[in-house]
């Protein structure tokens, strides 16, 4: 699974550009294709966009800061979810009534095709097929007199999962969709309010956590640092993405007042309860880095030692960035190496967070067998992914999701392990919410596991 995107915003801060770049680096796990920052300096916006990772520009940080004057800013890191693979945000817009503005978006909109066609008929010129640009044009072409009113008008026309940050000469805006599928948090750095997809972005700029932006809430921060909150959209049932707890969020982030790291360890503990190890197991081995917290929980509950049987090279990018299976296989060899010294002749519990296509795991299993592992019993710390996501996660098509097309026994044979077990959906809810799933009204968006889509697709 490819992560979505990450957003950041900051107000009334003399180091707005620098803090935005630091925060985007902390959110890099949410998007590695491109990043951008837009600052507001009195009556003018300044922008910087880069195709690549944030760390690539650190040597030029002083020049970048000079090109981004102003004490208010928004920023964005991106993977492709909808639109051009190499599109960059924040996206800039212009209105004859209220001037320049910029918008950045985490998520995916599901009803934009007819809106886009209507805007084209109105002679709006699109530079990309990114869904965020539809919101830019809706905002710019509306009949409202202010940026805030026009932005709210635009959001009322769309459906989907989103967290937006937006900026013009007067205000910084943050908003979550009425179902609250995508995350957005509020922090404070001295007198500056800060918006971010995750709390780890607050930590890197030394901002304190204030609270989460609520589903359907829109907050504005003016040039004097005053915060205002409104709920301009019809209320809907909260459906936060449960996969944030399994994989997307950084383990040092806090969601819903709970540590992601602690939840993932609890997921591992429950996985050990549901699928205990055989008596002849020697160790628990996580697939780094995402499998480590769950492996800690599994090992502690089962009484087995956890060993780093797979070593990750952190100087290689994500394996799914390259599209072909052959190139992915080569990149996996560059990314992972078996710790042969501790693995040879051993029976292991192998822990990973999820199975999507199965191709990455298959190559890892081959590597472990080449290292001399006797038995491999694979435990997955989430339920089988059987459905595509339409809310900002770039999942493969249904036909490419291995769990959608094969049974657990068939997946076991394809991957080449001695046994395979997934965490149950109730086990996941128990770890996250300390209660079973309400099948009539699920407490989270878990559509990738269940096919129960909260707002259509």
Q: Helix and strand layout, with pairings?
A:
Elements: E1 5-10, H1 16-26, E2 34-41, E3 44-51, H2 61-67, E4 72-78, E5 91-95, E6 99-109, H3 112-121, H4 131-141, H5 147-157, E7 160-168, E8 171-176, E9 185-189, E10 192-196, H6 199-204, E11 208-212, E12 218-222, E13 227-230, H7 243-248, E14 254-255, E15 258-259, H8 260-274, E16 283-286, H9 292-302, E17 310-312, H10 325-335, E18 336-338, H11 340-343, E19 347-352, H12 359-370, E20 375-380, H13 402-405, H14 408-415, E21 419-422, H15 425-433, H16 447-450
Parallel strand pairs: 16-19, 19-20, 20-21
Antiparallel strand pairs: 1-4, 1-10, 2-3, 2-4, 5-6, 6-7, 7-8, 8-12, 9-10, 9-11, 12-13, 14-15, 17-18
Helix pairs in contact: 3-4, 4-5, 8-9, 8-15, 10-12
Description:
This protein is an alpha+beta fold and about 450 residues long. α8 crosses α9. It is globular, with a radius of gyration of 23 Å. The chain starts with a strand and ends in a 7-residue tail after the last helix. About 50% of the residues are buried.
Brief synopsis:
The chain is an alpha+beta fold and 457 residues long. It has helices spanning 16-26, 61-67, 112-121, 131-141, 147-157, 199-204, 243-248, 260-274, 292-302, 325-335, 340-343, 359-370, 402-405, 408-415, 425-433, 447-450, and strands spanning 5-10, 34-41, 44-51, 72-78, 91-95, 99-109, 160-168, 171-176, 185-189, 192-196, 208-212, 218-222, 227-230, 254-255, 258-259, 283-286, 310-312, 336-338, 347-352, 375-380, 419-422. The protein starts with a strand and ends in a 7-residue tail after the last helix.
């Amino acid at each position: 699974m490819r992560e979505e995107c990450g957003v950041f915003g900051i107000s009334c801060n003399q180091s707005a550009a620098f803090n935005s770049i630091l925060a985007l680096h902390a959110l890099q796990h949410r998007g590695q294709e491109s990043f951008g920052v837009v600052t507001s300096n009195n009556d003018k916006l300044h922008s910087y966009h880069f195709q690549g990772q944030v760390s690539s520009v650190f040597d030029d940080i002083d020049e970048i800061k000079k090109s981004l004057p102003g004490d208010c800013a928004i920023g964005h890191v991106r993977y492709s979810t909808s639109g051009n693979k190499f599109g960059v945000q924040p996206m800039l817009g212009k209105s004859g009534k209220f001037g320049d503005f910029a918008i950045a978006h985490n998520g995916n909109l599901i009803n934009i095709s007819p809106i886009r066609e209507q805007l084209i008929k109105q002679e709006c010129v699109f530079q990309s097929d990114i869904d965020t640009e539809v919101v830019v044009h809706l905002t710019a072409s509306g009949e409202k007199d202010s940026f805030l009113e026009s932005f709210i008008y635009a959001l009322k026309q769309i459906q989907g999962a989103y967290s937006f940050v937006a900026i013009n000469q007067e205000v910084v805006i943050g908003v979550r969709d009425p179902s609250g599928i995508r995350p957005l948090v509020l922090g404070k750095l001295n007198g500056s309010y800060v918006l971010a997809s995750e709390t780890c972005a607050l930590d890197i700029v030394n901002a304190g956590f204030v609270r989460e932006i609520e589903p359907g809430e829109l907050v504005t921060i003016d040039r004097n640092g005053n915060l205002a909150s409104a709920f301009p959209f019809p209320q809907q049932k909260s459906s936060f993405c449960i996969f944030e707890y399994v994989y997307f969020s950084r383990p040092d982030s806090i969601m819903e007042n709970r540590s992601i790291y602690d939840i993932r360890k609890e997921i591992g503990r429950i996985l050990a309860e549901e699928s205990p190890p055989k008596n002849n197991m020697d160790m628990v081995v996580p697939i780094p880095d995402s499998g480590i917290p769950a492996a800690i929980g599994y090992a502690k509950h089962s009484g087995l030692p956890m060993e780093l049987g797979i070593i990750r090279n952190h100087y290689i990018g994500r394996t799914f960035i390259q599209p072909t299976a052959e190139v992915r296989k080569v990149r996996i060899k560059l990314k992972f190496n078996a710790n042969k010294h501790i693995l040879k002749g051993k029976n292991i519990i192998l822990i990973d967070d999820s199975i999507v296509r199965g191709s990455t795991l298959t190559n890892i299993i081959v590597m472990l067998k080449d290292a001399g592992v006797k038995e491999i019993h694979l435990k997955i710390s989430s339920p089988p992914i059987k459905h595509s996501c339409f809310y900002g996660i770039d999942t493969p098509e249904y036909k490419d999701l291995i769990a959608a097309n094969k049974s657990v026994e068939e997946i076991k044979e394809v991957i080449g392990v001695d046994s395979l077990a997934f965490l149950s959906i109730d086990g996941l809810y128990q770890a996250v919410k300390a209660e079973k799933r309400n099948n009539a009204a699920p407490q989270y968006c878990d559509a990738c596991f269940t096919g129960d889509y909260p707002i259509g697709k």
